[in-house]
Specification:
Elements: H1 6-18, E1 35-39, H2 49-59, E2 63-67, H3 72-85, E3 88-93, H4 107-127, E4 131-134, H5 145-167, E5 170-173, H6 184-192, E6 199-204, H7 214-221, E7 225-230, E8 232-236, E9 241-245, H8 254-263, E10 269-272, H9 279-293
Parallel strand pairs: 1-2, 1-10, 2-3, 3-4, 4-5, 5-6, 6-7, 7-10
Antiparallel strand pairs: 8-9
Length: 301
């Protein structure tokens, strides 16, 4: 277990409060309003990074989540574009966890996964971001569930948490159809097992809908949630198929999700992670986010 001294703990608690991860006391209203953000891949591919970030600001986004930079040069490009555009890089989406899962039995695979997270954490520090998103494990035909649980815990605790604490960057654990952390109670217990404010939950509203209710997961995870992803999802019972959708075009109960976020006092970034498009499309997405944040359905039914 990684130990933290009293000063580190107080610094950590202050940071989590600023990130919106501390729930209000019973009867206390949620403070402020969550901030609108966009995943970088939603912005037009043909634009430069600076042009993308300026467009995001123009259409109404306040923040952006970026992938792990492929080189120091690209990292500096992201940082400069954020400064010049005024768009806040609030989190980094680690890129190594699918091809190189922490739960692998192969030490070389784990080594590559750790290197990807280390680069992501250092990116986040450079950008002034607070969180790195991590899919902690992948259960497959070669990796048993219990092994995925224990292996990922060990690597996070021993090899990632010390750097995250040193750099003051939160590791945001996300569940994303990896056959792992299949209930909100287990997700909460996994986060709690680290006993550290530098490991929290990065919750994706759309990912859960196939086998649960996002508002239930939000209420169960509560103050553990440090960041939110939003997308919509539709299950066609007749065709027995499912489809990703724009906000409000699927089966998510958005007013109930907003109510749940208010109940836990969430005041951080809400990042759209859906299909990208041009300025008109992105303005529509921002409008849908605004309606959602006001407690309404993203689109009129």
């Amino acid at each position: 277990m990684t130990l933290i001294d009293r000063r580190s703990f107080l610094e950590s608690a202050a940071m989590l409060t600023a990130a919106g991860a501390i729930a209000p006391r019973p009867g206390q209203a949620a403070a402020g309003t969550p901030k609108k953000a966009v995943y970088m891949d939603m912005l037009p591919k043909q634009m430069t990074t600076l042009e993308k970030f300026k467009l995001a600001v123009d259409v109404g986004f306040e923040g952006v989540e970026v992938p792990t930079a492929e080189s120091p040069k690209q990292a500096e490009e992201f940082r400069e574009a954020a400064v010049k555009s005024g768009l806040k890089i609030h989190s980094v989406m680690n890129q190594a966890h699918w091809d190189y899962p922490l739960s692998s039995a192969d030490p070389e695979v784990v080594k590559k996964s750790v290197a990807g997270m280390e680069a992501s954490i250092r990116n986040a520090k450079l950008f002034g971001a607070s969180v790195v998103l991590l899919v902690p494990a992948v259960v497959d035909s070669k990796t048993m569930y219990r092994d995925a649980y224990k292996r990922s815990q060990k690597v996070i605790r021993e090899r990632l948490l010390p750097l995250a604490q040193e750099q003051k960057i939160i590791i945001g654990i996300e569940e994303v159809w990896n056959k792992f952390l299949l209930s909100p109670l287990e997700f909460a217990a996994y986060v709690d097992s680290f006993q550290s404010p530098w490991v929290q939950a990065y919750f994706d509203v759309g990912n859960i809908l196939l086998y649960g209710y996002p508002q239930d997961w939000i209420r169960t995870l509560g103050k553990r949630i440090v960041k939110i992803h939003v997308k919509d999802f539709h299950v066609d019972q007749k065709e027995e198929r499912f489809y990703w959708r724009n906000l409000g075009d699927g089966d998510v109960d958005w007013p109930e999700v907003r109510k749940a976020l208010g109940e836990i006092g969430y005041d951080g970034y809400i990042t759209t992670e859906i299909d990208g498009g041009d300025a008109a499309y992105l303005k529509d997405v921002v409008g849908r986010l605004d309606r959602f944040m006001a407690g309404k359905a993203p689109v009129a039914k």
